[in-house]
Amino acid sequence: MTTDDHLVDRQPTLSGAQIIAHLVPPRQFADATIETYRPDPDYPSQAEAVQAVREFTAASRPSGGLFRKRAPEALPGIYLDGGFGVGKTHLLASLWHAAPGRKYFGTFIEYTALVGALGYAEAIALLKGASLVCIDEFELDDPGDTRLMSRLLSELVASGSRIAATSNTPPNALGEGRFAAQDFLREIDALAARFRTIRIDGLDYRRRDVEGHAVSITPEELDAAVDRFSGSITSDKFGDVITHLATVHPSRYVRLIDGLDAIALRDVYVLSGQTDALRLVAFVDRLYDAQVPILASGIPLDQVFAEDMLGGGYRKKYLRAVSRLIALTSGEIS
Predict the structure, then answer these.
(1) A single GO CC term, please (predicted)?
(2) Which of 126, 213, 314, 326 is at a distance of 20 to 30 A from 266, taking alpha carbons?
(3) What is residue 232's three-state secondary structure?
(4) b/e per residue, 187-196, with b = 16+ CB within 10 A?
(5) φ/ψ of residue 323, rounded to 5
(6) pLDDT in tens, 200-222
(7) Assessment of whether the complete model's pTM goes beyond 0.85
(8) 33 with 97: CB under 8 angstroms?
(9) CA-based nearest residue to 138, from 176, 89, 205
């Protein structure tokens, strides 16, 4: 075992250059293609989404010949709207891999962090002219950041960039995200008519093969597992990690787990504060992107969100995190 002590001892920093370096698809989507996406035959909208992505990809490529017939003018943006675990990120990464030229892929929070690190003018100068800008997990629960991104997207499209985005809309009243696209398009009012919205229905693909609860082991079993672990692992009390996350900007969570092969969380308990719960959701997203498994004692991690949270406005985010926590503790993280 190579122990990196504790997560709470890590004080990550993240420069603008480091953020830019991370604007690529997560590790588990490093080889994602449209061909490797597995549409669920019970949900035809998934196959329809694949076709829409193919068309968007084809429209981004050069015509290839002086006398080739010009294709109909395609919209410069595509917006994938659907529940968690239906493969939106896979399709978004597929677009990125297929696109020519300079391109970027990041979460909503990574782009807002880039603006925070570099300033708006420098960030737009860096991104402007990119062939494709992919935005995963577009947030609608922070009006200020959403307006900032709306302005940024307007300038990018004006520079000739194509935009692809996925939704991550919190309000429960939106009905599993069905109207998320409309809210998103209203926020980018000048671009609304230039985006093709694709609805993707379906069940969480992580739950097709992984059922039950997140795996929890006894404190003694956790000690033994940490001792025999062959890679780099941290070991912390769950409550200490929750406290530490409040001191680190979510854009730096990716650096918090940099170089780790696993983390151990002791004495997991039900969270009572929504702010802490939302930070944990952001942290779980980064763990999942980096394919860092979790060893845990205490209550199963899929039960960490209180019932009133699961029934509230951020239900969609919590359910996505639950799905990922089950995968991260079961070994089914590919």
Answers:
(1) cytoplasm
(2) 314
(3) strand
(4) bbeebeebbb
(5) -60, -45
(6) 888 766 554 445 688 999 999 99
(7) no
(8) yes
(9) 89
